[in-house]
Design goal:
Chains A, B: Keywords: Carboxypeptidase, Endoplasmic reticulum, Glycoprotein, Golgi apparatus, Hydrolase, Lysosome, Metal-binding, Metalloprotease, Protease, Secreted, Signal, Zinc, Zymogen. Chains A, B: Homodimer. The monomeric form is inactive while the homodimer is active. Chains A, B: It comes from Sphingomonas aurea. Chains A, B: This is Carboxypeptidase Q. Two copies of one chain form a homodimer. By secondary structure, chain A is an alpha/beta fold. The first copy, chain A, folds into two domains: 5-108 and 269-466, Zn peptidases (Aminopeptidase), CATH 3.40.630.10; 110-267, Glucose Oxidase, domain 1. Chain A contains 13 helices and 18 strands. Chain A has helices at 44-52, 57-69, 78-93, 153-158, 182-192, 194-200, 240-251, 304-323, 344-352, 383-393, 412-415, 431-434, 447-466, and strands at residues 97-106, 109-111, 115-120, 125-127, 129-131, 143-150, 168-171, 205-209, 235-238, 257-262, 265-267, 270-279, 288-294, 331-336, 358-363, 371-376, 399-400, 420-426. In chain A, α2 packs across α8, α8 packs across α13 (447-466) and α10 (383-393) runs antiparallel to α13.
Chain lengths: 478, 478
């Protein structure tokens, strides 16, 4: 087998017989694979990586935050405020410097209300669902309307407007697991833009199959958005099991009527904040290494994989590097607020720190299963840093990707200014089983894989924060 | 969570509160996700796709070829010749037109000999290995030499030449499974170029840990290449279990001596060939849709996942489209010869058919686990074909990739001339457990996933072969 689309495989099919003792060969169409050049890495790196594989700081942060605080509802909730205080105490206790809360104001907040659904009539039965962030509300007594079924977003897009008026749209596309998480994009569009499309076509409400790869009863929460001028309609996600049940009911070919009660509301402005901690570096001019995750969570689970583990991983790695001696670059660990409801913490951070030089910005917000790939967008002299990362991360089973690193919600506003990025990609094969569900709890974290994450982040931080090369800015993102 | 590196996810973090009833919001840094445009697909497509999910032609081809012919050693072997005759009979029986063998000459062929290894001395024990294609030979009585261990290719590259002279190099990097197969590139370099590097540094021989993700006793065969002017040294792959055992022996810190017997040889020229079959189209000017897989295999297993299943999948899909009515474009199914030893069948095909217009070229050579992604490099009017493929493949759980389609060894010479490509990517998570090992047998094929493959290929062929748009050439590959 041979896949040339994977750049590193590009010469498996080298001319096998070019070295045969005699005779001409067909001119090679594919060229021989280039032998990589040797790369020198700091001998201390292996020691630090091995130490990280036995470190439990990430586990204790993840365990304690999900236990002592529990859900930290996105959108300036009281429990998120409690989590900020908890974070300050913990980060100080771990030995970080300049630990502080950086406050910002949320202009408006969407708040969950009641949420129930039932099939009426011959097949009367309850269905489990949860409202999507920014969903509109039904009357308190509920909304009763017939269901119109679309197997995919494309079918919804093709539907004539008249077919939706006064009805509850039901979009049921399924999602398969992908290691790179790409199926979240293609399946998730039913959540991201389905409610807006249904509202524009006059639907009274919309229910979707949860954007998830499980087969359980826990619905997957998450944000949606309506265009300016479009009045939000009630929008909710059925659990995968309930969505499949509703599909079977629709396949009976008889009219199905739902009663929906979904009563979220928009509150006034709220105060919220980011928590910041630092490992001061020796060279102020070398730029800050910005890392972190997000402190808020959806409310159904305890936000273990999303994103207590990301806080634990990045913080544990920063501590390991801190304990190994003062790095060249300052490492700044940010526990961002209000990621889930629109990336407010990341935007507030970027606005507050616009005058500072960042060398790189990267976050951990994809659970805690093993990291399988890294990518950078380093240019110039910094490409050598990428080469050292490849060698340093290889013993952890991590491949070098061929795409250009992007970022996540929280560091995106900093990356958008032209700061170099770097990604350590966790496997997404299990992530969407519990993402945004009641099942996002500590027991979903595999401590062995969590440690592999810490070792990868420690390797990355040691190499990047101590790199003698400059890390140039990249082209600002559009 | 949010990963903007995945293009389709690029606006999950849209400004959540932009629609809030009152108050200004922070200007959005990330833009709202674009709603996809509706796409019209042929209503017959769903029927054909469902029929494919119940079709058993791919299974019977895979079963019968691996049963009736068994291993079909790459490099013009007699069993490969027998497989060509078998193929002609089967393809005619299935109703294809213009079925024929297109012969070509292999100038030289590498042929396996004896292959054994044992640890001598205090820890005397046998080790299981297999010679790599293009390996040199030891004396018939064997080679006895001390082992020098390198945990990675980088360590081998860093080794001073003097450290290798007269020794057997042992490179032991491990490989983790990846859905996109990318770890084959980064781990596989130990096989692709390790022997050449060791030979240049004066090593007497090289053994590597098999390039595989299993933990078994079956060594993984595969090709390697030596630069012009470098005399091939004996080069072999230990099974993963045996490589780990040798690593533990090296960790004892005492000298370890191996006795290697590896006696392959280069034969003279041989005749070989491709098998070609067609579904004639109605429009000769629209270009040929070239598909297929490879008929040769490594000799240790029966070549079930590599690549009898690829022949089965592409042939079954072509038959389903043929049986549904004459397509616009001619579909040409090629069962290529001698892929494993250097892509000779693909090169011979490209040379023989250089004057013909191909619309696209694509192959199936990555096993038979479910297809999770497709990619194209269509340009101009043909981008609409990609949109229809996205809608047509989505019910099979297939995402649209954001990278540009490449190809495999067999179609690469045609793609190199500027013919458009398309990839239907099988999951690589299990593929390298048995790739090139004795375990590559029929029982590794999951009939349910095989049918999903056939449904995906049938969908692709129906859309592409019947597309009214022209499919323009793309920039020739470097």
């Amino acid at each position: 087998m041979f896949r040339s689309a994977l750049l590193l495989l590009a010469a498996t099919a080298a001319p096998a017989l070019a070295q045969a003792p005699t005779g001409p060969t067909t001119p090679p169409i594919t060229r021989p694979r280039a032998t990589p050049l040797p790369v020198q890495v700091d001998p201390k790196l292996a020691t630090l990586r091995d130490k990280a594989l036995g470190d439990d700081v990430a586990w204790t942060i993840t365990r304690d935050l999900t236990t002592e605080i529990g859900p930290r509802m996105t959108g300036g909730s009281a429990r998120q405020a409690a989590a900020r205080d908890w974070a300050v105490t913990r980060l100080k206790a771990l030995g970080f410097r300049n630990v502080r809360i950086e406050p910002y104001t949320l202009p408006q907040v969407w708040e969950r209300g009641s949420e129930t659904a039932e099939v009426l009539g011959e097949h009367a039965q309850p269905l489990r669902l949860t409202a999507l962030g920014n969903s509109g509300a039904t009357p308190t007594a509920g909304l009763v309307a017939p269901v119109v079924w679309f197997a995919s977003m494309n079918d919804l897009l093709l539907a004539p407007e008249s077919s939706l008026r006064g009805k509850i749209a039901f979009v049921s596309n399924a999602m398969e697991p992908t290691q790179d998480g790409s199926s979240y994009g293609s399946s998730g569009v039913a959540r991201f833009t389905g409610p807006n499309v249904a509202a524009r076509k006059g639907a009274a409400a919309i229910v979707i199959r949860s954007i998830g790869t499980d087969h359980g009863r826990g619905p997957h929460a998450g944000n949606t958005n309506f265009d300016d001028g479009v009045t939000p309609i009630p929008a909710a996600a059925l659990s995968v099991a309930d969505a499949e049940n509703l599909e079977r009911l629709m396949q009976l070919g008889k009219p199905i009527t739902l009663k929906l009660i979904v009563t979220p509301r928009f509150t006034g402005p709220r105060q919220s904040g980011n928590v910041v901690a630092e490992v001061p570096g020796t060279d102020r001019d070398a730029g800050i290494v910005l890392i972190g995750g997000h402190l808020d969570s959806w409310d159904l689970g305890t936000g273990a994989i999303d994103d207590a583990s990301g806080l634990g991983i990045t913080t544990a790695a920063a501590k390991l590097v801190m304990d190994a001696g003062r790095p060249r670059r300052t490492i700044r660990v940010v526990w961002f607020g209000d990621e889930e409801i629109g990336g407010f913490g990341g935007r507030a951070y970027a606005a507050a720190h616009a005058g500072e030089r960042h060398a790189i910005a990267t976050e951990s917000d994809f659970g805690a299963d093993r990291i399988w790939r890294f990518e950078t967008n380093f240019t110039g002299a910094a490409t050598a840093i990428g080469d050292r990362l490849a060698v340093g991360l290889a013993p952890l089973g991590i491949v070098r990707g061929t795409a250009t690193a992007g970022g996540g919600t929280d560091v995106e506003p900093v990356l958008a200014t032209g700061v170099a990025g770097l990604e350590l990609n966790q496997s997404g094969l299990r992530y969407f089983d519990v993402h945004h569900t009641p099942e996002d709890t500590l027991d979903r974290i595999d401590p062995v894989q969590l440690r592999q994450n810490v070792a990868a982040w420690t390797t990355m931080l040691h190499v990047v924060a101590n790199a003698p090369e400059e890390i140039p800015a990249v082209a600002p993102r559009p």
